[in-house]
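so im writing up the methods section and need the Nicotinate-nucleotide--dimethylbenzimidazole phosphoribosyltransferase record in one place, dumping it here so i stop losing it
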Amino acid sequence: MNSVKTAIQPLDREMGQQVREYIDTLTKPPGSLGRLEELAIQLAEMTSEAFPVVSPPGVIVFAADHGVVEEGVSAFPQEVTVQMVMNFLNSGAAINVFSRQIGAKFEVVDIGVAADIEADGFVNRKIRYGTNNFCQQDAMTREEAEEAIAVGYERAEQMIHQGIKCLIVGEMGIGNTTPSSAIAAVLSGKDIGALVGRGTGIATEKIRHKQEVIIRALKERNPDRKDPIDILAKIGGLEIAGMTGAMLSAARNRIPILVDGFICTIAALLAREICETAADYMMVGHRSVEPGHEIALELLGKKPLLDLDLRLGEGSGAAVAFPILQSATLMLKEMATFASAGISNE
Ligand SMILES: Cc1cc2ncn([C@H]3O[C@H](COP(=O)(O)O)[C@@H](O)[C@H]3O)c2cc1C
Ligand SMILES: O=C(O)c1cccnc1
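--- predicted struct ---
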């Protein structure tokens, strides 16, 4: 982990400045393409390319289960996790549709599903059959949390070697808004009441119960705010750790990361806890309905590209936002300059 820390380079501000000046020579009033201009500059700073590209993107979905579901914190039963993995493999999930739409390389990783998966076409890196119920004991050991980060790191390395130019990570894990809310509470110090949402759609009276489960777990587990591995081991999830590792790999390789919703943003915050510079390589695709997302976004200090009332996860919101990054790069590459088009600019 320490080698990752030192290997993540700061942004190339000089390239950013060069691209900023170039954008002002394009045939439009200065600043008129708003955040597309900012995105183009950020992508140039991340990649050190005057004309950055983001295609093809890569989508990695990490799937795992959560012992805490036995407390009744989700609207859906645990077996939906493995059933959705089958759906991913049959290309029927939302993230399959949007990945196809954007021409993404796509991969599903079993990093901790609570059942054996009888199928081909997925990456089997199961660390254990779901986490423990963290109301009763630590979700996993420190070693397992570190292994999950390493699995995520390795999967992203693999995709990056295959040539992806932008990383999207997604998750599938019934119950995972509960550990995500617990982690958000630890990292932000905010009240549970402000953080907990409906997840898959629990009823209002169940939200109160979900809050109580998290309050109880935080009291029992008492994770160390300053130690992201301790947080993951005590109240985390295997897919959350996998996403964290994948984002660290992308940052190390100077590959832009398009962050998805609430759960993904929690993984992003943990990546930043491990290495602060990692966050320089992140942009956020959308604002999720889940109330904790707003708090997580504030902590990360990033403004989402879209606000479409999504509350799905899987990487879906990031995939939907991806064409905006493409627009930013094409603006740079294909627009005429005042000089080349012979247009007066004074
Ligand atoms: C069919 C189905 C597909 C999903 N795809 C993502 N999630 C999302 O919902 C779950 C989190 O919500 P909670 O904490 O309330 O269980 C995660 O699996 C997340 O990826 C899904 C949920 C369902 C039911
Ligand atoms: O924003 C998310 O990532 C999210 C919200 C609700 C359920 N699953 C995921």
